[in-house]
């Protein structure tokens, strides 16, 4: 490379801690927010930026893939990579908005949630103590709100409301729980494929994630036991119901076996149960088996809407006071008006109407997916709950990173494998999110593209920019 033109972006500085590719993404986002980069600005080719920064091409490619996943940039085959216009920006003649089929974000499809939320917001000023919702309230949350949270968690596990604490969504609850049980440099065990938010949290806390082998039910007890022996880890993060990204759900027997390993190895377990509302027949959570060793985390956001940041956590008895202190230190309290909206939906019964719609839509979309991709998917297990995501194993001819790029070039967005994989030994495949497309016809269009790619693999013909 002979030099960098003045109008070609390079980061002024990269933070020294954490993954380098994420540091590039953060610097890019910061310069976009400062107005230093406008929609349509062209970025350097992968190779040139890698040479300028003294990094590998693979690191820069991961950064560009993550930035594109976050909606910051867009790649045009044969033209380059450009800063993407935001949804709120006026249309820019310099960069086209992506019209790809969105199979990358794990959200439910549009339903009656806006209508239901509007009704609750409209009635909020009639609250007996409306002004009080904007005052300082208990860090743990109001008793009435915690009673509604207990009803939401039931019926197979319904904790005492006094043990529930309210947070700004499940991610906030997880962040606080981990801050109580790990320090930088510690090891945390989890599935070999895990929730992307867990990877982000691990990087933020400076902990090492160790992936555990799984099968169609999730964590394998013997593999967990061996990982404990080798790593001497004391903390496990797991999602036993509709695990993200694999959609696996543990049987009662598997949960009992995992709980037994946790008891014997004295593991502190952080159990993420945000998809429980989609699985009415799921067994009781691990929390019910090892209450003194388990943080139980759930939320309303995955059911109602991502912007309704209302989460609930039940900590082990020895951590409850410290959890309350952590809530106070990081937020003082969850926003009472938002919590009130969510809890009124529970009390009024409106949320159960939404739950039924979500379950029905999830089942319908899974049926469409198996109709088109069934030959490439694992067979469904009996009574397996339907969610809005599943794991698509890929043949050797299709390395996951190549498959994601090829799909994007053909008009389908899929999250890059780095978002959910712990290490290079993770299974070769991609998470397919079924809720992003607004209509079934759009979902069918995207799945048909993937079917054609699987039927005629040709990764060697990809064009990279």
TrEMBL record:
Q: Which Pfam families match?
A: Aminotran_1_2 (PF00155), GntR (PF00392)
Does the keyword Plastid belong to this entry?
Answer: no
Q: Which GO terms describe its molecular function?
A: transaminase activity
Q: Where is the HTH gntR-type domain?
A: 18-86
InterPro entries per the UniProt record, alphabetical: Aminotransferase_I/II_large (IPR004839), HTH_trans_reg/aminotransferase (IPR051446), PyrdxlP-dep_Trfase (IPR015424), PyrdxlP-dep_Trfase_major (IPR015421), PyrdxlP-dep_Trfase_small (IPR015422), Tscrpt_reg_HTH_GntR (IPR000524), WH-like_DNA-bd_sf (IPR036388), WH_DNA-bd_sf (IPR036390)
Keyword annotations for this protein, in alphabetical order, are: Aminotransferase, DNA-binding, Pyridoxal phosphate, Transcription, Transcription regulation, Transferase
Q: Which family does it belong to?
A: In the C-terminal section; belongs to the class-I pyridoxal-phosphate-dependent aminotransferase family.
Return the protein name.
PLP-dependent aminotransferase family protein
Organism this protein belongs to: Ferrovibrio xuzhouensis
């Amino acid at each position: 490379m002979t030099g960098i033109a003045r109008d070609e972006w390079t980061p002024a500085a990269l933070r020294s801690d954490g993954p380098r590719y994420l540091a590039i993404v953060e610097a890019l986002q910061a310069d976009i927010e400062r107005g230093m980069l406008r929609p349509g600005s062209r970025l350097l080719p992968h190779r040139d930026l890698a040479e300028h920064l003294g990094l590998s091409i693979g690191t820069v490619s991961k950064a560009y893939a993550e930035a594109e996943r976050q909606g910051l940039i867009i790649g045009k085959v044969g033209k380059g990579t450009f800063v993407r216009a935001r949804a709120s920006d006026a249309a820019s003649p310099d960069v086209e908005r992506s019209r790809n089929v969105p199979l990358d974000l794990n959200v439910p499809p549009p339903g009656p949630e806006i209508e239901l939320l509007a009704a609750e917001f409209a009635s909020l000023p009639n609250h007996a103590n409306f002004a009080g919702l904007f005052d300082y309230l208990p860090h743990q949350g109001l008793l009435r709100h915690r009673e509604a949270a207990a009803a939401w968690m039931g019926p197979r596990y319904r904790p005492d409301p006094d043990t529930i604490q309210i947070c700004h969504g499940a991610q906030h609850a997880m962040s606080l729980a981990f801050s109580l049980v790990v320090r930088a440099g510690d090891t945390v065990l989890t599935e070999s494929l895990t929730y992307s938010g867990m990877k982000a949290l691990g990087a933020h806390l400076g902990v090492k994630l160790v992936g555990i082998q799984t099968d169609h039910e999730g964590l394998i007890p013997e593999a967990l036991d061996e990982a404990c022996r080798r790593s001497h880890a004391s903390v496990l993060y797991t999602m036993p119901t509709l695990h993200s990204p694999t959609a696996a759900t543990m049987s009662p027997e598997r949960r009992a076996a995992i709980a037994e390993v946790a008891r014997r190895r004295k593991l502190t377990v952080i159990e993420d149960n945000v998809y429980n509302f989609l699985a009415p027949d799921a067994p009781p959570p691990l929390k019910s088996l090892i209450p003194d060793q388990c943080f139980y985390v759930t939320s309303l956001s995955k059911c109602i809407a991502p912007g309704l940041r209302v989460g609930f956590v039940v900590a082990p008895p020895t951590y409850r006071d410290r959890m309350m202190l952590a809530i106070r230190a990081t937020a003082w309290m969850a926003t009472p008006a938002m919590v009130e909206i969510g809890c009124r939906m529970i009390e009024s019964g409106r949320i159960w109407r939404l739950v039924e719609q979500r379950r029905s839509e999830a089942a319908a979309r899974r049926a469409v997916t198996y109709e088109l991709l069934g030959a490439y998917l694992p067979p469904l297990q009996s009574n397996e709950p339907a969610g809005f995501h599943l794991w698509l194993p890929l043949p050797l001819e299709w390395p996951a990173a190549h498959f994601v790029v090829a799909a994007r070039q053909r008009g389908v967005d899929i999250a890059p494998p780095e978002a959910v994989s712990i290490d290079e030994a993770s299974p070769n495949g991609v998470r397919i999110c079924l809720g992003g497309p607004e209509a079934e016809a759009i979902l069918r269009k995207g799945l048909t593209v993937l079917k054609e790619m699987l039927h005629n693999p040709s990764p060697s013909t990809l064009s990279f920019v």
